[in-house]
Here is the input.
Amino acid sequence: MASLMQRASRAAFLAAAIVWAGLLPAQGGAPKPVIEKAVKGQQCVEDTEYMRKNHMKVLNHHRDKTVIEGIRTKKHSLKECINCHASEKTGSVAKSKDDFCVSCHTYAAVKIDCFECHSTKPQGPMTMHPLNADTAHYKHKLAAGAKKPVSVDDMAKVAQ
Amino acid sequence: MSEMNPNQGSPARQQAAQTVESLQRRRFIGAAGAAAGLAIAPGVMLIEVAHGRPEEQAASSAVRWGMLVDATKCGTGCNDCVTACSTENGWTPVAESAHPKQAPQWIRKLELQDPLTQMETNLPMMCQHCAEPPCVDVCPTGASFKRADGIVLVNRHTCIGCRYCMMACPYKARSLVHEQLNDTQKPDVPRGIGCVESCTFCVQKVDRGDGTTACVEACTASGHNALVFGDMNDPESEISRKLREIPTKQVRADLNLNLGVRYHGI
Here is the structure.
């Protein structure tokens, strides 16, 4: 009788453990951040892996160069980050919870102070960088937005 | 008194002669520098001229930015410089502010009247960009600083909003941002709650190579031409020429701060 009870409780425990284990991946952890593709440009100024770990060092270094010495190179400037990464929907990097900066920072629970003072929106309209050899295959997208119909010649160039 | 002294060999005379000599010498060096600044090859400059500073080059102490205000030309009731400043730098004009008494003022128009003669004087007042700025002396964190080219700025990354600099400034040129700005800032002009701020001589425009400020542009556009901005170290610049030609004053010259803003007609 006792052994039967023991066996039954063990079975119940096992079953509960299996159910719990099955539920675990669904409940575990915060939702992963949404990383929106940059609207402009194809490649970040540094490797993506490097930027994920070190963007704050790059930004802090450039910040001091800009404020104190007046060096306003574009490569590591926050303004250029915003120009590329502002969301197409909100036009900002930190307005809604899925915007580029906020999305990861919420996930990592790291507060950003940048936007207490800095604008989260790019200057002027959000437009593509001029196409180069690497981005020429996006030509059809531009053509789709253009008023004049796409000629056969244009399409031939896209194909190349 | 020393000018009245007939004795040619007086120390004051000698000093004056030396000053004239050194001025001429400085002018010559300036001219030589300008000549050397010519391109030695296409795109290669021996000495970069102030206005065309390449973006990867730091601001240099060879330049000292300054402004000349001609109060005799400044229009009564004209507020164009103030409006232009607020538009360029994104601060709310006092009239539109919900709390006018604590609204930021980077530049303000003053109307003065001599109680004896009733003579009225108009002038804009802003950060005077002192060579020896008291705001920099008192700042406990080093946030208030003078850039190499003479522009006095606040590094908002280190400013703790203690407002010692506001107390120290003899010109009431600085303000504290009291309220959340809710992403209304200009991309070129970051500013935010809890930091002190003041006129920056439109540093974003200067770094871009515009060689002018929003207030000067507005004053010129309104036809008053009361403001001149330029490099006070360059003897050939318009501001240096005018400073040589017309009598100018520094406000509270007794404080010996060597101001970057000079006034004519006050």
